[in-house]
From TrEMBL:
GO terms for biological process: translation. InterPro entries: mtLSU_mL37, Ribosomal_mL37/mL65. This is Large ribosomal subunit protein mL37. Keywords: Mitochondrion, Ribonucleoprotein, Ribosomal protein, Transit peptide. Belongs to the mitochondrion-specific ribosomal protein mL37 family. GO terms for molecular function: structural constituent of ribosome. The keyword Isomerase does not apply. It comes from Vireo altiloquus. The keyword Ribonucleoprotein applies. It is found in: Mitochondrion. Its main location: mitochondrion. It holds the Pfam family PDCD9. GO terms for cellular component: mitochondrion; ribonucleoprotein complex; ribosome.
Length: 313
């Protein structure tokens, strides 16, 4: 998606809200959850991924990005001792999403690998009130006239309109609710990675696709405003910079620009740490920056953990 999130908003009939929703912010701000107690572990997780887990002078992004993700997920799982319902989660990898919808007179599909998908036994409650949902009627979606909003989308022949949240899940799968999608942009060459804006657009499209497929599985294919909106989160990272997103599907009536819109909250470009000093910096035979230092940003870690806890606490 060349225009990024703006184009994804039109395709998914979505209103953007900057920052994280109050439900997630409240988890971060509540000292009873003890998020600050895990900060030291998070620092060690960064050190392990960026400084220790390699025999090379400096690890490559394709190595440290997945290692950092696994370290952070491990820290999140430690909270299950305090909140047992967190154990009712499952990480699924290499699962394919398919969702089909009509926008104006265009039939659209989002299909493909949907990152690493964390499923839950219970859905995330709606994050926007009924009043906030009704207020989206007044929101005017941005157009790209005279450019078509589908200008850079791939055209294919559709022989079957598919809607599913993962071909690897069979009927009766207990972890049936999509909770959070994780996208790791771990390519070592910059041009092989999504730029942050394009990554956020990808995150929005796949969060929407998972939510839409789930809504159709629950409520059928008829376009309608949902009495119980579907919430799906997404986190994207290149191993240093994080993108956080909470998407709420309020309606499957997506053909026209009128009426209720969907909602997305995005917190962009949050750095977990400043540059990791893998080798010492020496000037005039004097070490000005020793190896092993980095500027840790605890708020970014707390956001990651708060999104993990969201729907449980």
């Amino acid at each position: 998606l060349f225009p990024g999130v703006r184009q994804a908003q039109w395709l998914t009939k979505t209103k953007l809200v900057e920052g994280l929703p109050p439900a997630v912010q409240g988890i971060m701000d509540n000292p009873a959850h003890g998020l600050q107690e895990l900060e030291e572990r998070a620092k060690r997780a960064v050190s392990h991924a960026r400084l220790w887990d390699t025999a090379e002078v400096a690890p490559r992004r394709e190595q440290y990005c997945p290692v950092l993700f696994e370290n952070l997920i491990h820290i999140c799982r430690l909270m299950s001792g305090k909140y047992p319902s967190l154990s009712k989660r499952m990480l699924a990898r290499n699962c394919r999403i398919a969702a089909t919808w009509e926008r104006e007179s265009i039939l659209l599909q989002v299909r493909g690998l949907s990152g690493i998908l964390m499923n839950s036994m219970t859905p995330i409650p709606p994050v926007a009130s009924k009043e906030e949902i009704l207020a989206t009627k007044e929101h005017v979606l941005e157009t790209f006239y005279p450019i078509a909003p589908t200008i850079d989308l791939q055209e294919v022949n559709v022989y079957k309109e598919l809607n599913h949240t993962g071909q690897c899940f069979g009927d009766g799968y207990p972890y049936s609710h999509p909770h959070t999608l994780f996208f790791l942009e771990s390519a070592n060459v910059r041009t092989d990675r999504f730029r942050p804006e394009q990554l956020r657009a990808k995150m929005l499209m796949f969060a929407f696709g998972n939510a839409l497929a789930k809504a159709k599985a629950l409520h059928g294919n008829d376009p309608k405003v949902l009495e119980q909106p579907v919430v799906v989160q997404s986190i994207g990272t290149d191993g240093q910079l994080f993108q956080f997103m909470v998407f709420q599907l309020n309606t499957t009536d997506l053909v026209s620009n009128d009426g209720i819109k969907n909602l997305v909250w995005i917190d962009s470009d949050q750095s977990l740490y400043e540059k990791a000093q893998c080798v010492p910096e020496v000037k005039k035979r004097v070490v000005t920056k020793p190896a092993g230092i980095f500027g840790f940003q605890p708020d970014t870690f707390k956001k990651f953990l708060a999104l993990y806890l969201h729907g449980t606490v």
